[in-house]
């Protein structure tokens, strides 16, 4: 799966699953409260039935001539009778149980008025502990339902996400094939132009044509660098890296020579401070892409007759230019692919994305300090 496709699929799944989860949680909460109230209402009906049963027994005792009176107990509920002043007379509830009670989370109460006052009792209070077993089963079933629905909608969301991203995947694959074919076709003419320019410079050229030749060299090297970047982006994940002990000091000097024509064309003052024999374990192609893109950007976005300071130490590589710089908010997205700080300068906006990939692959860190109209400083710190 392509990275862009993966990111789109993850964003879709996050939004889809979060919205679905919130909807089901809300529906489950409403259903749970409704079902719980029904369970409690059913248990409350038991209190009502038992209350009428006890009152009917009290009535029967009141009318009987039996000298032996007994309190009509119930195995289903606890109860107690109170006089007209709501003083406790007798019952299976504790004697300190007041007649006025409030419903709590664990117990149900029902107060009944007895008319007429059978055996001096004016009120009957019945109580029952709430049976939590049905409520626990309800909670268990809701949790199982949410888990099942979560799995089902996760699979459904993944399938839908793949279907929605399929056109993007096809388009990206076609673009990659196009880039591959284009870069392959560009390689031969670019190499031919650069080879012939070197031959012309070797065998000499008339002074009046030297400026035209330099412009051709700059354009050819620009095309060559774009070709290398596009090839790197296209093959980065399949590229077999050959890690060697690379002399970064010599490589930076070599790449500065490569960009010498471009820096001279802008009349830049190049200041180089390179510590000898800075050795890093890197693939040379990765190191070239890192150095080339930073130097190229520093030249491209520099002002004419500006300065370019390059510093290589045992701990870092830094490059500072006197260009137009960037606003603070632009620094947050400058590493994104196809992001261009200045569209008037051309390019594809892939240079810093390549630099960021190299930095992440090797565990380096990169810092960009920039201020509008005051230039930019890029620092790449590595681990020796």
- Give the tally of structural domains: 2
What is the count of β-strands? 11
Largest sheet: 5 strands, mixed
Low-confidence stretches at least 5 residues in length (pLDDT < 50)? Answer: none
Q: What's the end-to-end separation, in Å?
A: 34 Å
Q: Number of helix segments?
A: 8
Task: Describe what this molecule looks like in 3D.
The protein is an alpha+beta fold. It has two domains: 3-131, no CATH class; 180-381, 2-Layer Sandwich (Heat Shock Protein 90), CATH 3.30.565. Helices cover 54% and strands 16% of the residues. The protein has eight helices and eleven strands. It has helices at 3-63, 133-203, 210-235, 248-258, 260-265, 284-300, 328-331, 351-361; strands at residues 78-82, 88-91, 107-113, 123-129, 243-247, 269-274, 279-283, 307-312, 316-321, 365-370, 376-381. The longest helix is centred in the middle third of the chain and has 71 residues, at 133-203. The mean pLDDT is 81.
Summarize the structure in short.
The protein has 384 residues and is α+β, with helices and mostly antiparallel strands. It contains eight helices and eleven strands.
Descriptive keywords:
384 residues; alpha+beta; Heat Shock Protein 90; 2 domains; five-stranded mixed sheet; four-stranded antiparallel sheet; 11 strands; rod-shaped
Topology:
Layout: H1 3-63, E1 78-82, E2 88-91, E3 107-113, E4 123-129, H2 133-203, H3 210-235, E5 243-247, H4 248-258, H5 260-265, E6 269-274, E7 279-283, H6 284-300, E8 307-312, E9 316-321, H7 328-331, H8 351-361, E10 365-370, E11 376-381
Parallel strand pairs: 6-8
Antiparallel strand pairs: 1-2, 1-4, 3-4, 5-7, 8-9, 9-11, 10-11
